[in-house]
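As a warm-up, study this chain.
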Amino acid sequence: IFQDLTRWKEMEEQMKRTEKLAAVGQLAAGLAHEIRNPMASISGAIQLFKDEGGFDNPNTERLMNIIITESNRLNRLISDFLLYAQPPKARRERVDLAKVVKDTLELFFHSPEYRHGIELIERIEDGVMVPCDPQQIQQVLWNLLLNAVEAMDGKGTLRVELSKDSETESAVLRVEDTGVGMSQEEVERIFEPFFTTKERGTGLGLSIVHKIIELHHGSIAVRSRKGEGSVFTITLPLRTSKGS
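Now compare it with the structure written out below.
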C-alpha cells in the first residue's frame, strides 16, 4: 500500500510539472506572437526609410510615427506581461472601498480615455470597509472602465455600483455597460492571457484584473450577450481570511 501511495504521489507531482510547463509554453507562444506583429511593423518602416532615401524621404515623419507607435506598443505589452507574470505583493490595509471607487471614477472621467457621449450612473454605498491594496483595486476598476468605454464606442450608459452583502460578508462591485457585448465563447475565454476582442490590445488587461482579485481572495464574474452589453461583478471579503 505504501509503495502504491508513493507511486501515486510521484505521478501527481509529474502531472503538476507537466501542466506547469504546458502553461509556460502557452504563455511564451502567446508573447512571441504578440511581439512579432509590432516588430514586423518597425522592421518594415525602417527598411522603407532606408530604401527611399532616409531623412530626404517625404514620408519620414509618417515612418517615424509608425516606429514610435509600435515601440510604445511593445513596451506596454512587456510591462503588462511582467505585471501578469509577477504582480507586486498586495499591501493590504483596511480601506473605505467607496472612496477608492469614487476617486477612480473622478480620475477616469477627467482622463483622455473618457468619451463625453457616455452617461454615468453610479450607486455607491458608503462605509464599505475591506482589507485590500487600494492601488491595485484602483487598477482593476480602471481596466474595467476602460474596457466598458471602448465597448460602447463613445456612446451609451455606464453603470457602476458598490454594495455590501451582509449574508456573504463581502463587498460587491459591479461595472455594467451597454456596449457591443460578447459571445458565449468570448465570455469563457475573456480572462485568458493574450485573448482579446479588440483590434489593438495586449490581451492581458483582464488577466491582470483576474489575478489581482484572486490575490485578494475575491472573485470576478462576467455576464454578456452580443449587442446587449456586459456586466462584470467583483466580490471581495469584508474581513481578512485566516492564513492570508
